[in-house]
Amino acid sequence: xxxxxxxxxxxxxxxxxxxxxxxxxxxxxxxxxxxxxxxxxxxxxxxxxxxxxxxxxxxxxxxxxxxxxxxxxxxxxxxxxxxxxxxxxxxxxxxxxxxxxxxxxxxxxxxxxxxxxxxxxxxxxxxxxxxxxxxxxxxxxxxxxxxxxxxxxxxxxxxxxxxxxxxxxxxxxxxxxxxxxxxxxxxxxxxxxxxxxxxxxxxxxxxxxxxxxxxxxxxxxxxxxxxxxxxxxxxxxxxxxxxxxxxxxxxxxxxxxxxxxxxxxxxxxxxxxxxxxxxxxxxxxxxxxxxxxxxxxxxxxxxxxxxxxxxxxxxxxxxxxxxxxxxxxxxxxxxxxxxxxxxxxxxxxxxxxxxxxxxxxxxxxxxxxxxxxxxxxxxxxxxxxxxxxxxxxxxxxxxxxxxx
Length: 404
Description:
12% strand; mainly alpha; 3 domains; 3-stranded antiparallel β-sheet; 15 helices
């Protein structure tokens, strides 16, 4: 202990004391203190002795840092809550899903709320943010749903009394008429035109050279099975049972923090065995012959059951680039004058036309890898001209029978 006098700026004489109090009973770390502002030397010594007694008998209170004082009064910032919540939420997610979710927080949620103290965020702030998002993006509810999820975590952890998003009203957007030409699936007549074009396309029809043997195999596989783009990219020859006419789907292309890789399917329902259509079988057989020649030219090992069916043209050991099927689709449709839909639109085409033909929705969901047939019916099955006309004929017959 050291006690000494000092003078203040106005010349007043006071006493200060500093020294070692002892060890913190909780952490075992040394505690030193410095006290000042005493009028007498005795008062300084008494204050030091009191502090030492309090430490020894468990009544000593360590001075809080400014940061701790602010946190005690105002709670956690949204960024701090996110840092606590994220490791818990992400623990059972696929890498690709985690990456997409992290982007949503980084691009939309944290820039708005990150520095705010979560228990001070008002309902109006959340309402205005949601309304602003709705004007910028059609999928705004997906973004706000993640924010709501994190806020619910904060409520459970007692970081805030209630979730302001519980009182927010999603803005109602005026429904606009969507012209038939913008739909992302083919009618039956359009499908026939697409198949004819795919069978006849050559590099003489396009400005960019493509391996149409591989393209045909890929596009017919997706079109006939309705499998996801990434599931087709992850296909290996061992997954194709030519003898029994079956396809085993157990993997999909994924994108994580470190890039593209082959992982599991999107869900448990995604693991399935489906039929191999004759059209796809012929296209795959033709590509198998050409791929063998292609690998030989590159000095690569011969095709084995583990060989990927669709590979990068410049790097035969790597999976097909996720952008390549899109390029095939664009060039095919432009060259043949066909209305273009996306690769995913071929999956919707399978669901819609199979439903139009009378396919059971539960069976259709199993084929597409959906756990819930209601989701298939709501999101993947669309009205067609043939279906609408059939419905009109059915109802017209009912009216005519009633009149008779």
